[in-house]
Design brief:
Layout: H1 23-29, E1 34-37, E2 49-52, H2 56-62, E3 86-87, H3 98-108, H4 119-139, E4 146-149, H5 152-170, E5 176-179, H6 185-193, E6 200-203, H7 214-223, E7 228-232, H8 246-257, E8 261-264, E9 281-285, E10 296-299, H9 326-363, E11 367-368, E12 379-383, H10 389-397, E13 401-402, E14 409-410, E15 413-414, H11 418-422, H12 427-431, E16 433-437, H13 444-463
Parallel strand pairs: 3-13, 5-6, 5-7, 7-8, 8-9
Antiparallel strand pairs: 1-2, 4-10, 9-10, 11-12, 12-16, 14-15
Helix pairs in contact: 3-9, 4-9, 5-6, 7-8, 9-13, 10-13
The chain binds pyridoxal-5'-phosphate.
Length: about 475
């Protein structure tokens, strides 16, 4: 993949090129821009973090507003292969589980389009349907209610746009979409896109603590029941790990109001929160649970109004077109199976790690978000007063510790987390945050490394 500004990340020794502050650009997109610390800015400012802008195109794009000099790309310790890595970004993507990898490898060489009627096609089809049954068993739902997608984003898009359009087709008064302000962009932007078709978007109210306010939202749903096309709330927030009242609101929507409800369950799978897959459409993503990148599922209970939003041969129940990627769904199913089987033991283990993580974070003065709220053990979000989250990411990265700010980076520009802002935090606070997310490969060794590195890293970041 090339950077929007061009460039080759391997180019070295470009010392002295003026560059602008591309910190998060390079960091978040990994398009080939590398992050480096410059020397002091010549005029009145603090030290900044900049990306190496290696090609002429990139240098031109950076312009001459920039500061500092660029160091050798390969100086960064985290570029060295021998550096032990401690990965705290499982909510972004988690390593593939062995069983998932084996299923992928086994099927990657398989010949046959699962839609073909010859023997090879039928064999491929049987792998796809076995995978569907495995997932259906794990989730205790009929296989016919699962459709394969490319991941959480596509499932969210279909669950919002496909449902809203179909519901309005049946009931022209249904022109409102209700979402929480802390959704992933796969939901928020899908809802926003519907405004160009005449829908309006209503936001769910949050409590002072920053969780979706269950009674106030249920009441709002009752007030708008006749005009709601779809309501959406995630099960677990991907930045804070806070469990949202999706299950209870889905029940109100389904049983009391007859309004379609969509739940983004991407960060909830295998982590404990209850969710009845009979009451809502639900989005899942394989690569968040130890499956492959590029696979996901949407659960669609019977009688849900829904129509396709992309077009082609209609392979998946005429709702999703495109040749079903046999190795990906076989691998996804194995990840679901293993996650489900190990869930209770694994969650206890992760809860133990989370308790230690919190004490490491608070020992350096970090403020943990949602400390008194129900959260999944796997995700902790912490504010580091006086520090920039971006700086902390880079400083920890240089010590082999991978964390994320959790915030969005739109078109290369770092944004403060919309989740933190919606929860009532200031821009400065939102910019000082880091997300630590753990998963099936996380151990106390990772926490040992974090504990050893964090005091120094925070002290450096505070001086900047
Ligand atoms: C809550 C949530 N929903 C949706 C997505 C998108 O999933 P995918 O990467 O499979 O498109 C993510 C990914 O971070 C997520 O955390």
């Amino acid at each position: 993949m090339t950077s929007p500004v061009g460039g080759d990340a391997r180019e070295r020794h470009i010392t002295g090129i003026p560059i602008s502050n591309f910190t998060a650009y390079g960091l978040r997109n990994s398009y080939g821009l590398r992050l480096h610390r410059t020397g002091d800015r010549p005029q009145r400012s603090r030290r900044v973090l900049v990306a190496v802008a290696p090609s002429r195109a990139a240098r031109t794009a950076c312009g001459h507003r920039g500061v500092g000099s660029i160091e050798d790309v390969d100086d960064s310790p985290s570029d060295r292969m021998d550096l032990v890595r401690h990965y705290f970004d499982h909510a972004a993507t988690t390593p593939m589980r062995d069983a998932a990898l084996t299923a992928w490898e086994t099927n990657a060489r398989r010949l046959g389009n699962p839609s073909a009627i010859h023997g090879a096609g039928r064999e491929a089809r049987s792998v796809v349907e076995e995978a569907r049954e495995t997932v259906a068993d794990a989730w205790s739902i009929p296989p016919s209610t699962i459709i394969w997608t490319s991941g959480g984003t596509e499932s969210d898009n279909l669950g919002i746009i496909g449902v809203a359009r179909a519901r309005r087709r049946k009931n022209p008064a249904a022109t409102q979409v209700m979402v929480s302000p802390i959704e992933h962009h796969g939901v928020l932007d899908a809802a926003a896109s519907l405004t160009s078709e005449g829908f309006t978007v209503i936001q769910m109210p949050l409590t002072e603590a920053g969780i979706v306010n269950y009674p106030a939202t249920a009441d709002l749903m009752r007030v708008h029941a006749d005009t709601l096309a779809v309501v959406a709330l995630m099960a677990v927030n991907n930045e804070t790990g806070i469990i949202q009242p999706a299950d209870r609101l889905a029940e109100v929507a389904h049983t009391e109001l007859g309004v379609p409800f969509h739940c983004d369950a991407v960060q909830a799978h295998g982590l404990g929160p209850a969710l009845s897959l009979q009451t809502c459409t639900a989005a899942f993503s394989a690569h968040k649970i130890g499956g492959p990148l590029g696979a996901g599922a949407l659960v669609i209970p019977p009688d849900t109004p829904i129509e396709a939003i992309s077009f082609g041969a209609g392979q998946e129940s005429r709702l999703r077109s495109g040749t079903v990627p046999v190795p990906l769904v076989a691998s996804f199913a194995e990840a679901v199976r293993e996650t489900t089987v190990t869930e209770s033991v694994e969650n206890q283990r992760i809860d133990g790690l989370a308790a230690r993580l919190e004490s490491i974070l608070t020992s350096v003065g970090a403020q943990i978000i949602g400390q008194n709220l129900a959260r999944v053990g796997a995700i902790r979000y912490a504010l580091f007063p006086g520090c920039s989250g971006q700086d902390l990411v880079v400083l920890l990265d240089a010590r082999g510790i991978h964390v994320s700010t959790g915030s969005a980076c739109t078109a290369g520009v770092p944004q403060p987390s919309h989740v933190l802002l919606a929860m009532g935090h200031s821009q400065d606070e939102a910019n000082s945050g880091l997300r630590f997310s753990m998963g099936w490969t996380t151990t106390h060794d990772d926490l040992d490394a974090l504990q050893a590195a964090l005091p120094e890293v925070v002290a450096i970041a505070r001086r900047r």
